[in-house]
């Protein structure tokens, strides 16, 4: 899909990370249960779109839980949380959760604007078993080089992902968050073996080899740092 043909209305994506630690009072289990059975349903009552809820399997800052949501614009994001704050069922569950001890160490929110050619969350087709998800963040030296990388994704790289059996979930430019300027995206795979096979195929793809060596688009010119994590969906996640 060309940028010109893409939908112009791009979603605001939120990544909300709940950083935890291993404790004797089962912080991870209590928080995962609260997020899946209380916060996620409250958000869906306020904004009936797909909600992704994940725990980290491999990555920095483990253990943590990650929630992915989508909104039409910033005012929609704000109004959704205003509705959650008035949700009696959620408030009752939150009171019980807070009364059980420390639930998480810190909470960190990142807001992103979806890419033109992937203007919102793409929920993968249903599968017999839960997939794994890879989330990757590319930092750039400047807004100019970041825009070149976004254009590179929109014009060619996302299509090469799809060709090599990678399932995109979202692509977004960070508009509020740390280590800016950067972009973040998420891909789904059947399992770790499928991920390894897909990345190997992608690395050997002739279109990718040509693209990655194009003057002005090499990693050394437009990407200053790459970080990634492997995530597993919770049972309540719409994205699995």
Could you describe the 3D structure shown?
- This protein is α+β, with helices and mostly antiparallel strands and 240 residues long.
- It has a single domain (12-233), classed as Alpha-Beta Plaits.
- Helices cover 36% and strands 28% of the residues.
- It contains seven helices and eight strands, in the order βαββααββαββαααβ.
- It has helices at residues 27-46, 74-84, 88-98, 143-163, 192-204, 206-212, 219-222; strands spanning 12-19, 52-58, 64-71, 106-114, 132-139, 167-176, 182-189, 225-233.
- Strands 1-3-2-8-5-7-6-4 form an eight-stranded antiparallel beta barrel, surrounded by four helices.
- A hairpin with a 5-residue loop joins strand 6 (167-176) and strand 7.
- Helix 1 (27-46) packs across helix 2 and helix 1 (27-46) runs antiparallel to helix 3 (88-98).
- The protein is globular, with a radius of gyration of 18 Å.
- Mean pLDDT is 94; it is low at 1-7.
Brief descriptors of the model:
240 residues, alpha+beta, Alpha-Beta Plaits, eight-stranded antiparallel barrel, 36% helix, globular
SSE arrangement:
Layout: E1 12-19, H1 27-46, E2 52-58, E3 64-71, H2 74-84, H3 88-98, E4 106-114, E5 132-139, H4 143-163, E6 167-176, E7 182-189, H5 192-204, H6 206-212, H7 219-222, E8 225-233
Antiparallel strand pairs: 1-3, 1-4, 2-3, 2-8, 4-6, 5-7, 5-8, 6-7
Helix pairs in contact: 1-2, 1-3
The overall pLDDT average reads 94
- Strand tally is 8
Write the element-wise H/E pattern from the N-terminal end onward.
Answer: EHEEHHEEHEEHHHE
Strand order of the largest sheet: 1-3-2-8-5-7-6-4
Shape by Cα distribution: globular
